[in-house]
Amino acid sequence: MPYPTDRRYTKEHEWITADGTIGITNHAQDSLGDIVFVELPKVGTEITVGKAFGTVESVKAVSDLFAPVSGTVTTVNDALATAPEQVNKDAHGAWMVKIKVKDPAEMNALLSAADYDKFVSEEAGH
Amino acid sequence: MSALEATPPVVPNNVRKTALNAVHRQMGAKMVGFNGWDMPVEYPASIGCGIVAEHLAVRTGVGIFDVSHMGDIRLAGREALAAVQHISMNDASRLAIGQAQYSALLYPQGTFVDDVIVHRLGEDEYLLVINAGTREKDFSWVRDNTRQFDCKVEHLSDDFTQIAIQGPKGVDVLQKLTDADLSAVKFYWVTRGTICGLKNILMGRTGYTAEDGFEIYIPPDEPTSARVWYAILEAGKEFGVVPCGLGARNTLRLEGKLPLYGHEISDTINVWEAGLDRFCKMEKPDFIGHAALEKAKTEGVKKTLVGLEMVDRGIARDGYKVLDDGGREIGYVTSGSPAPFLKKNIALAYVPPAQAAVGKTVKVEIRGQGVKAQVVPTPFYKRPKKAAKSE
Fold it and tell me: Of A24, A37, A65, which is closest to B315 when you measure between CB atoms?
């Protein structure tokens, strides 16, 4: 599956769009397997680049969500509380939170779609 | 995200592989290390799999598992029964030829070397099926503790590819491939017959899924193993068969409260604590662990295994702390997971007997928060009794 070019990626397998919408990648949902639980911060929470801000659980595994950049949570995708499987069905559409990005310059440190694709292929081939 | 494990394409030399390893990879299975083995945890969604789908297939239809990592020890000879009786807690003298029983090997302290299935294959011949992670330890234990008996002890773990065909349709699938009359084989009995042209194959109506099904023991070479694996998948098509990995194997056994070595049972947990009383026959002739268990019985247990169901939102995981209402630590979770068939978040946990009554409310510490859970009856899942067949 090609990674959308309208957003940036982290090596921890999150994506973020220019307007601050955050989700996990298709590779992440595939690695986790059946996602059964998503725990997200409340609106107004400050999240810090590189720090955990939420949790995704599959049947088998617990995984932290790491903030791609710093910012303040403005919207939470509450639908995932009752339908976490949406993330398996459409990882690049089923967003987790929207944030007001604190410092847009932090986005520059993130991977492009092509770089992330390459990173994932290399990780699989280590 | 963190804790993501990509499929390792290159397996280190010290990791063991079953004869079906290449088949699993070819089918796109996600592979993980398990007790030193490179095993499939789940198969891809693109072929209708994934832990939840695999779990549901076994509850409602049929799924197959490569369980060749399980070990096998054969005891044969004039005093084989006496040897088995000495090293295991169940009463093997009750076994007819062709019958099997759940049992355990115990240390003198009454704690677990391993849990096993004891099969009586002949007049003086027994087969113990043991766990993958404890193969070498078990074999040494059995050999060293049966020296006084006139009985040959053989380690046959690498002599079989073991495939489990599990689920209400499991018997129908296997029946298509064998001349043996499987309807005549009761639960926890074995038979022999031809499967896919292979003669004299051992088939046991056993499993680790809390479901009906068979486990078959075929020659361990790769071509034969692959041929039979694919033949079962082909024969099972009409029943919606899927290959299943260790992920579903774990959730299935958890719903059925079947213990897992290193979790519910271990060398620090005794039989009474684990609640396996009905498989421990104190009245039979002496066996290793008997004296300690007798003493432990009079002293009473300090912890006991209970089933928990999460009341509030959260999933208990292996090793999480169990707290009382006041937030005091009282125990720990041995196995916890979402239960795909029951659609609840369940766990097995050790707590003090005073906290173990069904209906009791406790908390499970999840990421620093006490999340409400309740002690519930176990097993969480029991397979429905089939109406007697007239055939």
Answer: A37
Residues of chain B with pLDDT > 70: what percent?
95
CA distance A125 to chain B (A): 7
Q: Name the residue ranges covered by the structural domains of chain B.
A: 21-68+160-255, 71-158, 302-379
Amino acid at A56: V
Rg (alpha carbons) of chain A, rounded to whole number: 13
What's the predicted TM-score (pTM) here?
0.94
Average pLDDT score over residue span A66-83? 97
Strand locations in B13-168 (E): 30-34, 37-42, 63-66, 71-76, 100-106, 112-122, 125-130, 152-155, 161-166
Residue with tokens 């790769």: B222
Q: Is B6's Cβ below 8 Å from some Cβ in A?
A: yes
Q: Are strands B329-339 and B321-323 parallel, antiparallel or unpaired?
A: antiparallel
- How many whole angstroms separate alpha carbon B167 and alpha carbon B56? 9
Which listed CATH number (2.60.120.260, 1.10.3720.10, 3.30.70.1400, 1.10.260.40) goes with B71-158? 3.30.70.1400
Tokens of B147: 């020296």
Interface confidence (ipTM) of the complex = 0.89
Backbone angles phi, psi at B227, to 5 degrees: -60, -45
Alpha-carbon distance of B382 to B180, in angstroms, equals 28
B6/A126 touch (CB, cutoff 8 Å), yes or no: yes
Q: Class assignment of domain A7-104?
A: mainly beta
Per-residue pLDDT tens over the stretch B190-227: 999 999 999 999 999 999 999 999 999 999 999 999 99
